[in-house]
Design brief:
The complex is a heterodimer of chains A (about 110) and B (about 110).
Chain A: E1 4-7, E2 10-13, E3 19-25, E4 31-38, E5 42-49, E6 56-57, E7 64-68, E8 74-78, E9 87-97, E10 100-105, E11 109-113
Parallel strand pairs in A: 2-11
Antiparallel strand pairs in A: 1-3, 3-8, 4-5, 4-9, 5-6, 7-8, 9-10, 9-11
Chain B: E1 4-7, E2 10-14, E3 19-25, E4 32-38, E5 45-51, E6 56-59, E7 62-67, E8 72-77, E9 86-92, E10 100-101, E11 105-110
Parallel strand pairs in B: 2-11
Antiparallel strand pairs in B: 1-3, 3-8, 4-5, 4-9, 6-7, 7-8, 9-10, 9-11
The chains are: A mainly beta (about 110), B mainly beta (about 110).
Chain lengths: ~110, ~110
């Protein structure tokens, strides 16, 4: 049981380049999320998908797009990378357990934009 | 939208002491409050959570309390050990919506 898997683990981009971060979960969870983690800023929500076919903006969506390809996969795309998008990106998925939303995280993607 | 404030940002304790981390939230509709622990270079992992119809929950050395009226909740770690050193995040959510996290507390336990 792999849980939540993100690819790639590390990436260096030049300003203006585009890329897609991939995320897949094998826990049959309905909800999936993308967060970014910056020093002193905690985990900030970029986009989330409460169920297959739906996506919603989070706290910091500018410069990003997402696709919920199917129930398992949720990708994050940077169309034109900027140095301000240098961060660690975490994908997460969640299940409803007695009304709660326990989230399981992937191992993270460390992205550097130069 | 929901906003979660977390204090302190750093906390240093001696092994065996207790540690308390406090969070406040803004949306009175929030009903689920988890705490995550993140070790250096690792992913965040759930350590304890509490729902809005419960005032306190314990799991061995860890406890969480919730005051709905004041909209704050706290993490209590007793008999701290060096392996408790990590970054701790509180979060809040309304059922079926995304978790909103605080900015984290770096806990250092010295032996």
């Amino acid at each position: 049981n792999a849980g939540v898997t993100q690819t790639p683990k590390f990436q260096v981009l030049k300003t203006g380049q585009s890329m897609t971060l991939q995320c897949a979960q094998d826990m049959n969870h309905n909800s999936m999320y993308w967060y970014r983690q910056d020093p002193g800023m905690g985990l900030r929500l970029i986009y989330y998908s409460a169920s297959e076919g739906t996506t919603d903006k989070g706290e910091v969506p500018n410069g990003y797009n997402v696709s919920r390809l199917n129930k398992r996969e949720f990708s994050l795309r940077l169309e034109s990378a900027a140095p301000s998008q240098t961060s660690v990106y975490f994908c997460a998925s969640s299940t409803l357990r007695g009304g709660d939303t326990e989230a399981f995280f992937g191992q993270g993607t460390r992205l550097t934009v130069v | 939208g929901e906003n979660v404030e977390q204090h302190p940002s750093t906390l240093s304790v001696q092994e065996g002491d207790s540690a308390v981390i406090k969070c406040t939230y803004s949306d009175s509709a929030s009903n689920y409050f988890p705490w995550y622990k993140q070790e250096l270079g690792k992913r965040p992992q759930l350590i304890i959570d509490i729902r809005s119809n419960v005032g306190e929950k314990k799991d061995q050395r860890i406890a969480v309390t919730l005051n709905k009226t004041a909209k704050h909740f706290s993490l209590h770690i007793t008999e701290t050990q060096p392996e408790d050193s990590a970054v701790y995040f509180c979060a809040a959510s309304i059922t079926r919506t995304a978790l909103i996290f605080g900015k984290g507390t770096t806990l250092s336990v010295s032996s």
